[in-house]
Specification:
Length: 207
């Protein structure tokens, strides 16, 4: 029987996470803490005895850097890796690069909360979580899932909202449930799938 292993990891803390800025498709790198989180994620995966056949990540530096650091810890630096913008973070549009407190002053706390925490209301010029799902899910179904079901042990290093989109489908969550799901930076979530792509088991390695 094949393992049908799928591991999701949100990138380590980025420079803009630290500065409380809306990041989206902007491309800051990891902080020192983020580097430590990524290395720790790799050590946790190694401690589980996990190795991988393929990896996927976004086109953004913070996710790619996290993946590189994890693979170095596991001892798989040459792993075949695909970068695709389908796995990018949600695009925050006009909010990108703004301090979250400044955004609240400009648009009001209630409006910013709606943009951040509603399922289908996008910020100006940006994407809602529903839009992110519409971008991420087809890529997962067409390019990632078939390999997992063939037994390719797969590691995905991506972002809070693109991973939420996948988790929503994997765990059959409602829009309300997925909005409440927080993903820690640098904390692997290990899924093993049934042959019909449903989840057989889940282990969350958040500290």
């Amino acid at each position: 029987m094949s393992d049908r292993l799928l591991v999701l990891v949100r990138h380590g803390q980025s420079d803009w996470n630290l500065k409380n800025l809306f990041t989206g498709w902007k491309d800051p790198d990891l902080t020192e803490q983020g580097i430590a989180e990524a290395k720790d994620a790799g050590r946790k995966l190694k401690a589980q005895g996990l190795t991988f056949d393929v990896a996927f990540t976004s086109v953004l530096t913070r996710a790619q850097h996290t993946l590189k650091l994890m693979l170095a810890e596991i001892g798989q630096t040459g792993l075949p890796t695909t970068n695709n913008l389908a796995l990018n973070e949600r695009d925050y549009g006009d909010l990108s690069g703004l301090n979250k407190d400044d955004a609240r002053k400009k648009w009001g706390e209630d409006q910013v909360l709606i943009w951040r925490r509603s399922y289908d209301v996008p910020p100006p010029g940006g994407e809602s979580l529903k839009d992110t799902l519409a971008r991420t899910l087809p890529y997962y179904v067409q390019e990632i899932l078939p390999g997992v079901l063939r037994g390719q042990r797969t590691l995905i290093s991506a972002h809070g909202n693109s991973l939420r989109a996948l988790i929503m489908v994997l765990e059959k969550l409602s829009p309300e449930q997925i909005l409440k799901r927080e993903l820690a930076t640098g904390a692997p979530v290990i899924y093993r799938l049934n042959a019909d792509s449903t989840v057989a088991s889940k282990v969350d390695l958040a500290a």
